[in-house]
């Protein structure tokens, strides 16, 4: 790779790190927030490794990124619930790039349901993807970052990881877990050079609610149609902010909610 490894800009006397030549792994890059983070990172000069299960979506995103920006975009098909897939994701990254600078634990599912409707398989799926997936991401990426004495892990939680709503009970439990992981990582890693950011979006217009099957939740959502939501790029810009601060600045928590009409 002939890219510059580190560029620092001085803006108003502050050193702002560029993403030029850095390598970022993004899980859940096949749609929504993950896809937008990948595009914004590429726009800022980062090489991106795109992970998800839908290979066709990853391939078309990688093609778009490489045609629009002077960066490399590699795809790795990975199911975050499989430890070996996440280990392979980092191994594949190391084959092509000299470092693992940023790891975005973004893949997630939001299968909202009321407890009385007993959708136990969906509870399990949320625990597997939203908690175990993040843990496997940390397991796979952290050793390389500790060895480099530098890196940044971004965990995508949710406003539902700060508040619990009717029908979000299990989803919120998983997102509170993500927040707890981020808080513990910040405490344990602050002397290692590895930074941690917990990102908590409010409602963002993506495919996420399309997998909900609880009829009562779906009709509740019908009543809420017309409410303002965020776009994926609103979250992507906040992630770019978090990962481009000077190396001594640890942006631990970012919460982004949509404004509502007056
Ligand atoms: N949209 C919102 O309102 C909102 C609000 C707060 C937080 N969030 C969080 O933001 C993150 C991204 O969600 P989104 O809104 O962008 O939804 P999305 O468009 O549905 O994206 C979810 C991503 O997760 C991936 N994924 C799901 N299960 C996976 C698995 N087992 N292995 C690998 N990848 C998997 C999907 O890819 P494949 O299906 O191709 O595998 C997809 O790329 C999630 O963690 C979500 O909880 C979203």
Automatic annotation (TrEMBL):
Protein name, UniProt field: SDR family oxidoreductase
Classification via SUPFAM superfamilies: NAD(P)-binding Rossmann-fold domains
Family listed: Belongs to the short-chain dehydrogenases/reductases (SDR) family.
Enzyme class: oxidoreductase
Cited PANTHER family: DEHYDROGENASE/REDUCTASE SDR FAMILY MEMBER 11, DEHYDROGENASE_REDUCTASE SDR FAMILY MEMBER 11
Pfam family, one: adh_short
InterPro entries: NAD(P)-bd_dom_sf (IPR036291), SDR_fam (IPR002347)
UniProt GO molecular function: oxidoreductase activity
EC number: 1.-.-.-
Domain of life: Bacteria
The keyword Oxidoreductase belongs to this UniProt entry's keyword annotation: yes
Annotated keywords: Oxidoreductase
């Amino acid at each position: 790779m002939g890219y510059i490894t580190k560029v620092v800009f001085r803006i108003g006397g502050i050193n702002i790190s560029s993403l030029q030549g850095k390598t970022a792994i993004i899980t859940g890059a096949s749609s929504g927030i993950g896809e937008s983070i990948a595009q914004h990172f590429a726009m800022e000069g980062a090489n991106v490794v795109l992970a998800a299960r839908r290979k066709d979506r990853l391939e078309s995103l990688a093609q778009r990124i490489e045609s629009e920006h002077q960066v490399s975009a590699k795809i790795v098909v990975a199911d975050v619930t499989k430890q070996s897939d996440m280990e392979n994701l980092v191994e594949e990254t190391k084959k092509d790039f000299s470092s693992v600078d940023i790891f975005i634990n973004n893949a997630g599912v939001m299968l909202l349901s009321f407890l009385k409707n007993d959708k136990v398989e969906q509870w399990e799926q949320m625990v597997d993807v939203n908690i175990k997936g993040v843990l496997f991401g940390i397991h796979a990426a952290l050793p390389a970052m500790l060895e480099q004495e530098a890196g940044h892990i971004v965990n995508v939680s949710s406003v539902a990881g700060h508040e619990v709503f009717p029908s979000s009970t299990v989803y919120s439990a998983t997102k509170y877990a993500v927040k707890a992981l981020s808080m513990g990582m910040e405490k344990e890693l602050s002397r290692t050079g590895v930074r941690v950011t917990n990102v908590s979006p409010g409602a963002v217009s993506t495919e996420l609610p399309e997998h909900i099957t609880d009829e009562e939740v779906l009709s509740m959502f019908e009543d809420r149609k017309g409410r303002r939501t965020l776009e994926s790029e609103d979250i992507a810009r906040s992630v770019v902010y978090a990962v481009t601060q000077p190396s001594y600045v640890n942006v631990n928590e970012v919460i982004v909610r949509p404004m509502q009409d007056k």
